């Protein structure tokens, strides 16, 4: 799938959230998701001794809270300039169940790729 300008903007949005909000051991990853109508939802993970919640899960909950019907594209980045992070298997399954046509941005920051969630 082709990287669009809006995909590059989504990577930048996730990176900005990671830089701004991931400043402790409690929050180490940030996701940004674009909705079908062009809004951007961002979220950070929550680390806990039992494992916590991944940013993709938090983004999904945030989308539901804001009444978003469809997520179109999602990307997750690490804190402190770490690269784009591929969602863990449980999150991929969760996202695929809720948004089977979701586009996923993966790969190195300097050459990201778009793939499908399933
Ligand atoms: Zn996960």
Automatic annotation (TrEMBL):
TM annotation in the entry: none
Occurrences of domain CMP/dCMP-type deaminase (ranges): 4-118
InterPro entries, A to Z: CMP_dCMP_dom, Cytidine_deaminase-like
PROSITE patterns: CYT_DCMP_DEAMINASES_2
Name of the molecule in the record: Cytidine deaminase
Lineage of the species this protein comes from: Bacteria, Bacillati, Actinomycetota, Actinomycetes, Micromonosporales
């Amino acid at each position: 799938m082709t990287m669009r300008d809006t995909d590059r903007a989504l990577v930048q949005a996730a990176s900005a959230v990671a830089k701004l909000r991931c400043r402790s051991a409690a929050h180490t990853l940030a996701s940004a998701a674009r909705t079908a109508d062009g809004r951007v939802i961002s979220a950070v993970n929550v680390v806990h001794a039992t494992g916590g919640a991944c940013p993709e899960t938090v983004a999904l909950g945030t989308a539901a809270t804001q009444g978003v019907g469809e997520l179109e594209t999602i990307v997750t980045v690490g804190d402190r300039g770490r690269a784009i992070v591929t969602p863990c298997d449980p999150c991929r399954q969760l996202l695929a169940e809720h948004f089977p046509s979701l586009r996923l941005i993966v790969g190195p920051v300097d050459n990201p790729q778009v793939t499908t969630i399933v």
